């Protein structure tokens, strides 16, 4: 997200004609990019990982193509997407990470899948051109909304709403996923 902040600041300063430390910002942005591409990639796993040196997957990696850090069809990204589907997904539901393998978050108890991550997955599949898969995932996610079409932050294995309700960030991810899929489907 540090890369995103610098990238967007550069973009805004250019679009608005505002003075900025653009040369320094470009250099720092590029240093961050190179570091993440080198240190965040695990050659053995053929995947980006939760943190440098780990073997853990994290669904927040789904933000990489959404924030335009990597292309949605980049081979390293597609390999990462496959691992997220294999390790963190249960049908259309996506878990943030596996607490047995990930960095300790200090939270007790069991978590459900994160609705926002499930919608990020839909958008990633869409951007990768896997439209049938994206459409099916989105349609399945619709079944987890309540009678008003609202989503909880998390969804339990038996479909129960967990965590914050309603969750605004989840609904923003739903809108983004639906808009991108609708455009792709024409």
Write the layout of secondary structure elements.
Elements: H1 2-16, H2 22-39, E1 41-42, E2 47-48, H3 63-66, H4 75-88, E3 89-90, E4 93-94, E5 113-114, H5 115-127, H6 131-142, E6 154-155, E7 161-162, H7 168-185
Antiparallel strand pairs: 1-2, 3-4, 5-6, 6-7
Helix pairs in contact: 1-2, 5-6, 5-7, 6-7
Keywords:
3-stranded antiparallel beta sheet; 8% strand; two-stranded antiparallel ribbon; 51% helix; 7 strands; Glycosyltransferase; 7 helices; mainly alpha; globular; single chain; 186 residues
Task: Write a brief caption for the model.
The protein is mainly α. Helices cover 51% and strands 8% of the residues.
Write a structural description.
The mean pLDDT is about 90. The longest helix has 18 residues, at about 20-40. The protein is mainly alpha-helical and about 190 residues long. A 3-stranded antiparallel beta sheet has the order 5-6-7. A two-stranded antiparallel sheet has the order 1-2. It has helices spanning about 1-15, 20-40, 65, 75-90, 115-125, 130-140, 170-185; strands at about 40, 45-50, 90, 95, 115, 155, 160. The protein folds into 2 domains: about 1-40, no CATH class; about 45-185, Glycosyltransferase (Alpha/alpha barrel), CATH 1.50.10.20. It starts with a helix and ends with a helix. The chain is globular. It has 7 helices and 7 strands.
